[in-house]
């Protein structure tokens, strides 16, 4: 009986808000055609996992809150996937070092390793913001929508990431004789 009530609740939400939810997700994703159906399914699966759906005061708001969380987790997953290259790896693969001396090559490689190490030490949101902005070219307002925060907060995440990398590089330069 409880499962039937849950399924009825979710079915009602799908009928009344399904199209709007699809648009909501599509606007916030780069690869909407591939990812939207999966993310919609995840949203509705999470709704089915709710033990007491009768306590939800505003189902539409709750639906979009869950969708925002799903988008945020999707963005984090995309940023941390092994297939998503880090900026350093991209630079190292495309850097042409044919006419440089071995010492310059070694110094460049150490610099890239320092940046990579620095990126692993920042917060997940700052890291994801940096990757989405600099590697994937997402504008800050889209990143803000995926995180469910203001554009100003995303600017703070990006600034925090860039400052952290700059300070780490500065410290690394001091250590090198």
Strand content: under 5%
Give the uncertain stretches in residue-range form: 82-99
- Topology, number of strands: 0
CATH overall fold name of the largest domain: Arc Repressor Mutant, subunit A
CATH homologous superfamily title of the largest domain: Winged helix-like DNA-binding domain superfamily/Winged helix DNA-binding domain
Task: For the record, give the distance between the C-alpha atoms at the N and C termini, rounded to a whole number.
Answer: 73 Å
Question: What do you see in this structure?
Answer:
The protein has 177 residues and is mainly α. The protein folds into two domains: 73 residues, Rna Polymerase Sigma Factor, Chain: A (Orthogonal Bundle), CATH 1.10.1740; 89 residues, Arc Repressor Mutant, subunit A (Orthogonal Bundle), CATH 1.10.10. Helices cover 78% and strands 0% of the residues. The protein contains eight helices and no strands. The longest helix is centred in the first third of the chain and has 26 residues. The protein is elongated. The N and C termini lie far apart (73 Å).
């Amino acid at each position: 009986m409880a499962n039937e009530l849950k399924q009825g609740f979710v079915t009602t939400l799908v009928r009344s808000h399904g199209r709007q939810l699809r648009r909501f997700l599509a606007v916030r994703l780069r690869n909407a055609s591939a990812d939207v159906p999966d993310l919609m399914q995840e949203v509705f699966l999470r709704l089915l996992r709710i033990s007491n759906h009768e306590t939800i005061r505003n189902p539409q708001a709750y639906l979009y809150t869950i969708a925002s969380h799903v988008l945020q987790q999707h963005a984090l997953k995309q940023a941390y996937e092994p297939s998503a290259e880090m900026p350093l790896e991209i630079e190292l693969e495309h850097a042409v070092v044919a006419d440089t001396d071995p010492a310059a090559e070694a110094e460049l490689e150490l610099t890239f390793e320092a940046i990579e190490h620095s990126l692993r030490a920042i917060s997940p949101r700052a890291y994801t913001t940096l990757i989405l902005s600099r590697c994937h070219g997402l504008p800050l307002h889209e990143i803000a929508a995926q995180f469910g925060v203001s554009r100003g907060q995303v600017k703070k995440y990006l600034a925090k990431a860039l400052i952290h990398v700059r300070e780490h590089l500065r410290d690394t330069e001091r250590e090198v004789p």
